[in-house]
Each structure stands twice: as C-alpha cells, then as structure tokens.
Amino acid sequence: MQKLTILGSTGSIGVSTLDVVRRHPERYRVLALCAHRQVDKLFEQCIEFQPRFAVVGDAELATRLRTRLAAAGCTTAVEHGPEALCRLASLPEVDAVMAAIVGAAGLEPTLAAVRAGKKVLLANKEALVMAGAVFIRAVAESGATLLPIDSEHNAIFQSLPADYRGDMAVSGVSGLLLTASGGPFRKTPVADLVAVTPDQACAHPKWSMGRKISVDSATMMNKGLEMIEARWLFNVPAENIQVVIHPQSVVHSLVQYVDGSVLAELGNPDMRTPIAHALAYPERIASGVAPLDLFAVAQLEFERPDFARFPCLALAYRALKAGGSAPATLNAANEVAVEAFLDGRIGFTEIAPLIATVLDALPAGEVTTLAEVLAADRAARELAGQIVAERASAGAAVIGVA
Ligand code: NAD
Ligand code: MG
Questions:
Q1: Best CA proximity match to 226, nearest among 157, 275, 153, 156
Q2: What's the CA-to-centroid distance between 222 and ligand 1, angstroms?
Q3: Which residues share a beta bridge with 245?
Q4: 269: how many CB neighbours lie within 10 A of its CB?
Q5: DSSP string computed for 330-341
Q6: Taking a C-beta distance cutoff of 8 angstroms, is the pair 146, 139 a contact?
Q7: Number of Cβ atoms within 10 Å of the Cβ of 343
C-alpha cells in the first residue's frame, strides 16, 4: 500500500490523480490532500478519500473546512499555509508526492518532498524551470525518485532506456523531439491575436487543463517551459531539443538515437495515462483512458514552430541559453503576465513584450541556492507587477476582455 500526499488536489491534475487512485483502493491510500481556496471541492474529496490531513490557503478557510468536516463526522485534521504543505510533503510515512500545485507556489513543498527522498510525481513544471540546478542537486543528494507527469516528459522518460542516467552519449541518444499541439491559435491570423479573450485562450483544442497552463499553451510559453524542464530532467542541451507542432496530440514526444531509431509514446490526450504510469512505475495499472484508435485518428501531422506567431517560445530559448537566474525571471514574469491577462489588465499580445522587458532589465546572475532562486523570482515579479500597474495608470486600453 503506497501512501500519498497530493499537492494541488482540487486542480485539473489533482482531480485526474484521484480518479486513478479511486480505481486502485488496494494499492493507494491518500494521506494528505492539499488545496488553496476551493474548500467545497476539498470537502468532497475529504469525505470520499478520508485523508489523515488536509491543507488550505489560510486560517479562515481552515476553520470553515474543519467545521464542515466535523459536522459530517470526518476526522481529517485541517492545517493551512505553506509550512503545512512542506510538512505534509515530507512526512516520514508518505511514500509518494504528487506535485500538482500551479506555478512558483509549488516550489518549496515539492523541494521538501525531494529533500525527504520521496518518490516525486512532478506536474509542477514551474518548480523545475525556476530552480533547475538546485532541484536536480537535491534529487541527487537525497536519492529521491523523480517521475515526470508532464505528458511530453513522461513520453520521453518511457522512450529512453530504463537505465538512462543523464548521459546522451552513453545511451546513444542524439536528441529529443518535444511535441506541441500549437494551442487554440495555431491558425488564427496573427493580426487577430490582439483581440483574444481569456476564455478563447483557455479553450484548448485537445487538453482540458487549469487556466494558467491553458494560456501558456496558447502563447506556447508552455512549450518553452517544457524545453527547460526537459533540459533538467534528461540533461539534454537546448540544441538537442526540437519543438514539433503536432495538432493531433497523439504522439506525446519522441527520442532520437544515433542509429536512426526514433522511439515515441502514443496515446489519447488524457493526463490519467502519465499519472497512472508514474504512480505504478515500474509496473502498469489501468488508468481509465480509452485505448488509442489509430483508425479514428487516421492522420498524424507535424510542422515547424512559427517563432513570429509564438514569441514566448523564443524568449524561453533565450532564458535557457542565458542560464542562471534567467529561467526563474522568465517564469515569474510569465506568471504575472498571465494573471494580468486573465484578470483583463493586459491584452494577449502584451504577454510576450512584458516578459521580454523584464528579461532585458534583469540580467541573468548565478543561482546556487534556493534563496537566490526565490530572490530572482521576487525581483522579476516586482518589476513585472510595476509594469502592469504603470500601464493601467497610463490608461492603456484593456484589450480582449469579453
Ligand atoms: P489548476 O489551476 O487546475 O490547479 C492548481 C492547483 O494548485 C489547485 O489545486 C490549487 O488549489 C493549487 N494551488 C494554486 N495556488 C496555490 C498556492 N498558492 N498554494 C497551494 N496550492 C495552490 O492547474 P493544473 O492544470 O492542474 O496544473 C497543475 C500543474 O501541473 C501546473 O504546474 C501545470 O503546468 C502542470 N501540468 C498540468 C497539466 C494539465 O493537463 N492540467 C499537464 C501538464 C502539466
Ligand atoms: Mg505538457
């Protein structure tokens, strides 16, 4: 019986994780469920899974949840705040932690799980993008097992040799092909992107996901973040990672070998496949995902990415090449920009220029500690926030809000 802590249980990945767990009660027991503000959803999850602990964002929400659970006869202990997340991610009795908080807020609890040597199922790509070197060093020092949940990285993991230890040459790997759906605006005339609304940006053609990653997919910053994620997970440099637009989202990514072989993982676009793979690894369990029907798919298309249409992808390449604090700066500026876009404070086409301005203003410095990563994150967040506020006070038109 594996005991689980689920960080971000009320989100898209959290809910899919619980769906897989629900199918295998003899294998998994949920020890802690952690969410932020969605008390109603967390209440229902606690009633169903009866975890020992639950975490919410603040004391007031904790009181609300505690009262409701007590009235329902549920004995789950309710805690709140970032320290509680770190504590429950590193409890001695926890075997595996699903890291599915969105954004930089997930870094410290995910790192706490890594430092405690847990099996860490990593959905929270922002944590690795921000703190790559610190994170991977912590994995090596603690002996934690890091399993990728991001579908592309899970596909690459499955397509690499089982004994791959981060040395391309030793394993005969010549490169990675990272597939991308191209998002909802792959064919939209570039001139029309200025009027895109948050709901249009979040209407992903293939994947159902949280709003932040949906906007990232629409700008293709998601693929940029995934390139940086791949660099750290597999120790492959940027020049050996090719982004490939693949609108059907059936080939989840590929590994090229020096002998000309190309191995891939295929499946329906449903996150329960990588979640089930990582939960059971190295075994296999049912996920609830329907078998892939190649006759229904019929055609697989592949295109080169268009950097003019997707400037965020070029910004991510730039940050990856610059190294040091640049990916943390990129990630923080992107989080502020996406939030401002979702709130209607900036337009869709202002996201990339805002990130570029922050990257220009804050040169990449060396980062070897978590404190330095967090300082870079804070500086970029402050500057990006200032730029958004200045635009608002200058009376900049609010673009693209329905
Ligand atoms: P989501 O917005 O649906 O859910 C986010 C979860 O994080 C929620 O449970 C929320 O309560 C929690 N959360 C948010 N802020 C928090 C905070 N400050 N403290 C504690 N908890 C907080 O997001 P999602 O789509 O499930 O994505 C989660 C992560 O997984 C992201 O990093 C995303 O990039 C990655 N990911 C998601 C998918 C997908 O299909 N949804 C695919 C690949 C990777
Ligand atoms: Mg992905």
A1: 153
A2: 13
A3: 180, 303
A4: 18
A5: HHHHHHHHHHHH
A6: yes
A7: 12
- CA count, 13 A, side-chain hemisphere, 320: 26
First-to-final CA distance of the chain: 48
Which residue ranges have their beta carbon within 6 Å of ligand 1? 8-14, 35-36, 38, 57, 100-102, 105, 123-126, 150, 207, 209-210, 212-213, 271
pLDDT band at 391 (very low <50, low <70, confident <90, very high): confident
> Which of these, 269, 276, 275, 274, lies nearest to 290 by C-alpha position?
269
Taking a C-beta distance cutoff of 8 angstroms, is the pair 12, 39 a contact? no
Beta bridge partners of 4: 30, 96
Instruction: Measure 108 CA to ligand 1 centroid, in angstroms.
Output: 14
Per-residue pLDDT, 400: 37
pLDDT in tens, 224-235: 999 999 999 999
Q: Kind and range of the H or E element at 178?
A: strand 173-180
3-state secondary structure of 266: strand
* pLDDT tens per residue across span 266-290: 999 999 999 999 999 999 999 999 9
Could you tell me the two tokens for 197? 């609304």
Reading the block at residue 237, the tokens are 């440099």
262 forms beta bridges with 256
Q: Which amino acid is at 164?
A: Y
* Residue 13 Cα to ligand 2 middle (Å): 12
Cβ atoms of residues 221 and 334 within 8 Å:
yes
Q: Is the pLDDT of residue 11 over 90?
A: yes
> Does the pLDDT at position 30 exceed 60?
yes
Query: Which atom of ligand 1 is nearest the CA belonging to 14?
Result: 26
Instruction: Give, using CA atoms, the residue closest to atom 2 of ligand 1.
Output: 210
- Residue 187 sits at φ, ψ, to 5 deg, of -115, 0
Of 5, 97, 101, 219, which is best to mutate to test ligand 1, by the most ligand atoms within 8 angstroms of its C-beta? 101
Residue with tokens 């809000």: 401
Which residue has the least CA distance to atom 43 on ligand 1? 150
- Ligand nearest to C-alpha 8: 1
Taking the centre of ligand 2 as the mean of its atom positions, its distance from the CA of residue 303, in whole angstroms, is: 17
Q: Tokens representing 81?
A: 């705040």
Which residue type sits at 310?
F
d(CA 347, CA 399): 5
Q: What atom of ligand 1 comes closest to residue 208's alpha carbon? A: 40
